[in-house]
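Reviewers of the previous submission asked for a worked example of the structure-prediction workflow described in the proposal, so we include one complete record here. The input consisted solely of the amino acid sequence. No template or homolog information was supplied to the procedure at any stage.
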Amino acid sequence: MATYVVAIRREARLEPVTAEECVRQVPGVQVKEAGNPSCVVIEASPQAVSEIERRFGDKLIVEADIRHKRLL
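From that input alone, the workflow returned the following structure tokens.
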């Protein structure tokens, strides 16, 4: 499973639903960091991400969370 950042689109921010509420409706998604209603960090399979985009693509943006670590 890969890590993704899910954020509410600007045009959908006036809706009462949070990013976390949306992603919790999709099987195979594990919430890693929450707290900000507009953004959540998840772990999910590519199939689960596709399902998030299918169900909530008009409300949410899903992007891979790529973290660079310095080599020691």
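Confidence is low (pLDDT under 50) at residues 68-72. We consider this example representative of the routine output the project will generate in years two and three.
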